[in-house]
Request: fold
Amino acid sequence: MQIRSPDKIIGAVLLLGMFILLMNVPTSHAPADTTTVTLMSAQTTTGLGKASVGTLGTPAPGGGDHFTFQFTGVGTATARIELSNDGTNWAPVYTFKAISDFYQAPVCGACLYRAYAIIADATNTVTITATLGGAAMFNAPTYTPTNTPTTTPTPTRTPTVTPSNTPTRTPTVTQTPTARPTWTPTPAVPPGFPTATPTPTATRTPTVTPT
Reply:
């Protein structure tokens, strides 16, 4: 009987072991290519981004499919992720808490996700991307959002009227005294008594006889 070399025996044992391991590996969904969709790109206005994301069809149960939303803000910019089951009614599900933050959400068959900028302007920009992980196929319809302008009410000022006090002059009345007549009383003569009539006294003028 021919005796094989130890090297050949060891090689055969290793090949058999690798074959057994490969046969026992559980099967899983083949992962799809990682796809990234930009929902906002340095957006400077509040409101919706330029796309929403979903999947084509219902993912297989237990497939581990999920979305990863990556948020990058500048300054005080902030945004949130919203969810809809019908494409019409939307509800917020997550608000980003830092200028660099992410949020993972499960994949569902009919739902859609979108981004909404809460604070954004020329110096506070918002960038959000969505990455799909798993075997699901991306569905990312793009659209031109119609932003509702924010109306800043202009306060109406009511002028304060300061009253102008005009002094009221009270005229000074100068009273001229009315001259009263001087009354000299006449002594009353009792009845029955004669009224004395003064008797004139004759004045004699002497006659001068020339010498």
